[in-house]
Amino acid sequence: MQTTEDNVIILFSHSTTMKVERAKLNSASEYFQAMFRRARWTESKSQTITLEDDNIKAMELLFRKIHGTMSSMTDKRVTVAEWWHLVMACDKYDIDPKSLGELFQGWHKASKVKEEYQKPLLKFEAEVAFPCYAFDTAEAFKEVTKKLVYASTGHIVESNPTNIGQMHLPPRVMQQLNAARGRLRNILHKGLFERIGEIVKHGNCSCKETTVFDYLRELSRIKVWPLEDSLRDMSIDEIIEHLWRFDSARMRQYRGTSSDNRSGEQWCSCRFSWHLVVQSAASRVSEYFDGLCLDCMDSSKNLRDGGNKDDDYWHYHEKFKRFDAKCRVDHGQPTWYFSFMGRREKKGLIAD
Question: Which residues form the BTB domain (predicted)?
Fold first, then answer.
């Protein structure tokens, strides 16, 4: 039978109070165990505990999760900033944020389609990337990081909706996302201009200049050339969308013959299906990167049991039949590659 001594009143500096059970806080956190069991803590025998500088909504989520009373929560609206504060509360009170992953995953799935989070573009993704990482929600993190790579214009950065500067993703994450975007740019450049390069180097037909000019003119019409200039103002997704507007019928159909054609047969180095060249480049880029994988990131930071850091490094780079064999999300080799984070030398960041 529960007595009044089993309950504790949590008093916040905002004059808000919450009723909690001492035993459940004890079992959830070593921080609260020390608070209640050590005589030198005034809270050990008190029925009222004051907690300073905590976000009310974040603490309500935390205590309701501990007590299993989420269904009784009257105001279920939670902002992105409050999830950040919840990560901070987990760190402060020594509670594993991964235990709240399912709760956050459900919120993310419901919130990402809400109109209030659609504008400005990518604000939601830039702010939610860190909670996805902290709460270890693999599917959400993969989705968010993929969108940041494909929908960003310019340098990819995260955004902190709180004033707590010590909370952020490991710097390596942003570095890898920008590297992935750079890789997409290189693949796009090769796909669009490799054939043109062959014509310039080896073309012998009389129409090669016309073909190169018409091809570049059509890319210019759909605002994809010069490519470097276009990428400064457009995202990868926008570039791909523009590429599907490529119309090879706008290119002149004149075809000459090769100057060294001894057989007399009509042959032309420009005889390519140019719309397929462009569509192939667009398709490869759109399907290349699946987002970052939390499981691959984690395996690249931690030693195997009984291993050493050098052997473990080489083990990570062994060839695999499936690059997502031990992961919670499906992905290909590029995601595995860009999810390499290097070794975690020491604990320093929040939620790392």
Answer: 6-75
